[in-house]
Write a structure and sequence with these properties.
The complex is a heterodimer of chains A (269) and B (264). Chain A has 269 residues and is mainly α. Chain A has twelve helices and no strands. The chains are: A mainly alpha (269), B mainly alpha (264).
């Protein structure tokens, strides 16, 4: 089939090239030097920072997304809020990259609307008090704009799976709301929550354009980009080694994700 | 009907504020005057529509999206059809392959593509119609696959094919005149996703140095603050349009919303 030929030529061959190339030296022989170099600064720092940033946005995005989704789905909330939220999340999860970065520059940048509002109305300059959009915290705030809606999209079906009867049964047996969550709600949702958060982690880890546009440099994706667009192409094999490192982190993530996904499906029937 | 819980109000309001304020701020920012930084003028919008590069890159990205959609459909529709009809055993293999692009993000894919295809003829390597589209078809693959797969699962491929063939239709005629109209919605959904991906894709275009719409957007971000806000809103509008059309056509089939990874 032409499709398999295509996938081989443009997906598996390049991926394979990265895997193999990472172990080659500039002179053609085999070497572990490139991989070893990954464990030196600044590269290991960039990896750590990427992983940290992805983990933080996955946790906050995961928790926040869960709370918002639950607030929209639970009894008493009008139906239109739920459908509105799902539609909006479907769109917002796809905002990203250059336009998203600029939307936040216009909001929280040095002359952003919100920054100016604080300055003019409250006489408080957030930039003189340690805040900057172009730091790790700033990038995390921006990433949440696509992490939260993604969590809402992924977790909403799982929350639907929490049957109303379970709540009533728990209440009849004398459980307080907190006890219901401790013994029923959280355990049932746990596999879906973990699975969704892993997805969020990978989503943030692979991100490039948003951080690039904010001028934030200390991420592994930005390092790879800079390595390839720089004028001096020192050793392409080292670029491949960095790509291999990313691939490795994402592969570990997938290995954890797939069994969780199966477990989560158990309650979905 | 129970009343809305107070905590639900709080979370929904917080969420609303976080998502709405940046959009409103970008809008207000786009109305500011370039010289004074004060409201209100539409000069930023006029500036944008008078840029030659704006129309040029917008057109380029749009045509690249059309080419990506055409190649993806030509490649995936027969494959998914054939797998559903003849070798259902291969379906998990395809589903697994559709997950591979999540492990090979755009930045890794472009590193691989650059190292494999460096030195190939310039009509391929130096042209967005060649190199970029090839990568975009791979980015679109998971979305096309899951979309088409759902489409094929909801129709009776065997009966349709047998009926068509016993009336004397050849394979190509069956595919185009019988199967395609039945999976129209799925194909459209996949196409809108591909459109949204290509219109927003920055990573691959940046590393392989092609001048597409998101690259133009980044260039304006760096050089013209107020027009950049106007352009940002236009770019959001494109995503909105693509995703809302997707949700609209998908509604009847109960398809779930999708998310993309290409743009980030």
């Amino acid at each position: 089939m032409p499709f398999f030929a295509y996938a081989f030529a443009f997906l598996f061959l390049p991926a394979g090239q990265v895997l193999v190339g990472a172990f080659k030296s500039q002179h053609g022989g085999w070497t572990f030097r490139n991989i070893e170099n990954l464990f030196h600064q600044p590269y290991v720092g960039a990896f750590q920072n990427s992983i940290e940033l992805s983990a933080v946005t996955a946790l906050i995005g995961g928790a926040g997304g869960l709370l918002i989704a639950y607030a929209a789905i639970r009894e008493g909330t009008p139906r239109w809020i739920r459908s509105g939220l799902t539609t909006f999340s479907g769109v917002a999860a796809n905002f990203g990259g250059i336009p998203l970065a600029f939307a936040f520059i216009a909001t929280l940048g040095a002359i952003g609307i919100v920054t100016r509002f604080f300055q003019n109305q409250l006489h408080y300059n957030i930039y003189q008090h340690g805040f900057s959009l172009f730091t790790k915290t700033g990038v995390e705030i921006v990433y949440l704009y696509f992490q939260l809606p993604l969590m809402i999209l992924v977790i909403a079906p799982a929350i639907d799976g929490l049957k109303r009867e379970w709540r009533e049964a728990a209440a009849n047996l004398g459980a307080r709301p907190l006890q219901f969550w401790r013994f029923v709600g959280i355990p049932v949702l746990m596999p879906s929550m973990l699975g969704a958060m892993i997805l969020l982690f990978g989503n943030a880890f692979a991100a490039y354009a948003t951080a690039y546009s904010l001028g934030y440099r200390n991420l592994i994706t930005i390092f790879i980009g800079a390595y390839y667009s720089g004028n001096v192409l020192s050793d392409p094999h080292f670029g491949q080694a960095m790509a291999l490192g990313m691939f490795f982190v994402l592969a570990v993530m997938m290995v954890v994700y797939i069994p969780l996904q199966r477990r989560a499906a158990r309650w979905a029937k | 009907m129970p009343r809305m819980a107070p905590s639900a109000y709080v979370w929904l309001l917080l969420g609303f504020a976080y998502f709405f304020i940046p959009l409103l701020a970008t809008f207000l920012f786009s109305l500011d005057k370039n010289s004074t930084g004060k409201c209100c003028t539409v000069a930023s919008y006029t500036w944008v529509v008078h840029q030659h590069d704006f129309w040029h890159t917008l057109k380029l990205s749009f045509l690249l999206a059309l080419e990506t959609i055409a190649i993806s459909l030509a490649l995936f529709v027969p494959t998914v059809y054939w797998v559903h009809l003849k070798v259902p055993k291969l379906r998990p293999v395809l589903a697994f392959m559709a997950l591979v692009p999540f492990v090979v993000p755009p930045i890794v894919l472009v590193v691989g593509l650059l190292s494999v295809y460096k030195g190939t003829p310039s009509w391929f390597y130096a042209q967005p119609w060649g190199f970029l589209v090839v990568a975009y078809v791979i980015l679109a693959f998971p979305y096309m696959f899951f979309s088409l797969d759902a489409g094929f699962r909801s129709i009776d491929v065997h009966t349709l094919t047998e009926a068509s063939q016993s009336l004397g239709a050849s394979w190509p005629v069956t595919l185009v005149k019988v199967i395609l109209p039945n999976i129209r919605v799925a194909a459209l959904a996949g196409s809108f996703l591909a459109l949204a991906i290509v219109m927003g894709e920055f990573t691959i275009a940046n590393l392989s140095q092609f001048y597409t719409f998101p690259i133009f957007l980044q260039y304006v971000n760096e050089t013209q603050a107020y027009p950049a806000a106007a352009l940002t809103l236009m770019s959001f509008a494109i995503t909105w349009a693509a995703m809302l059309s997707l949700l609209f056509i998908g509604r009847k089939r109960g398809q779930r919303a999708a998310f993309l990874t290409g743009a980030r």
